[in-house]
Amino acid sequence: MTTVEILAVGNEILLGDVLDTNTNWICKKVTGLGGNVQRAVLLQDDQDGIASELKNSFSRRPDLIITTGGMGPTEDDITLTAVAIATGHLLKLDDRALDIVKKRYEYFNREGFVESPEITPSRRKMALIPEGSTPLDNPVGTAPAITLKHDKSLIVCLPGVPPELQGIFAGSLQPTLTEFFGNAFFLEKVILADCGDESVLAPLLKSVSTHNSRVYVKSRAKKFGKDIKFRVTVSMAGSSQEEVLEHIERTIEDLRLTLKSHNIGIQESDK
């Protein structure tokens, strides 16, 4: 199973001005691909702090380290500088990255979004990447993403603007994701259990989970009440759709029989 750590960078996140939806989105995608997110942290725009956290990640040797944020044209966008420090690479102007930046500003100029396509120093900054990196097209914004191999880990640096991050994830990053995860299939079903007390439900779910170890079974409760229906998530990632469907259906049937023996009914939900 591919192991993943996520470093979300941005003062605005830690100040509470911006909600970090990127980490949640990446966790869902990685899980859906059959990966295992082992750690996620929020960091200030501080190059020494980011570099230190990267080195900590290197010591744990995850397969993928994904950073988000800090890749724009402003002075406090220093994620790539921190990556260069942590990996011992020089930060250099990359012709491929510069070409990506040029083409994006030419496009935005044609569309009337910017007054000039000129590559100013602040725009040129986005083409400064650690030596040995591979720049990736950004179909939404202007800052290229990058990948960089370091020891056992592959570092993937993505912009923090959600549409840009998601566009890169679905586009230019796909060959890398396929290399790590293959053509994985993920399925999640939500079951509503007629039980208002999670303390009653928990040991029954644990029994079902133990007998279906490849399937993730988890209840999500928010309050008590005799009319409350608990949401139980049943999910799995695998190498084939047939395999995943078989395990999911077997687990749901096991869940149905186990809860029925305790006078608890269930029904599938459309979420």
Describe the structure.
- By secondary structure, the protein is α/β, with parallel strands linked by helices.
- It has two domains: 179 residues, MoaB/Mog-like domain (Molybdenum Cofactor Biosythetic Enzyme, Chain A), CATH 3.40.980.10; 85 residues, 2-Layer Sandwich (Alpha-Beta Plaits).
- Helix content is 41%, strand content 25%.
- The protein is built from ten helices and twelve strands.
- The strands form three sheets. It has a six-stranded mixed beta sheet with strand order 2-1-3-8-7-6, with helices on both faces. The protein has a four-stranded antiparallel beta sheet with strand order 10-11-9-12, with helices on one face. A two-stranded antiparallel ribbon has the order 4-5.
- Helix 3 crosses helix 4 and helix 9 crosses helix 10.
- It is elongated, with a radius of gyration of 22 Å.
- The protein starts with a strand and ends with a strand.
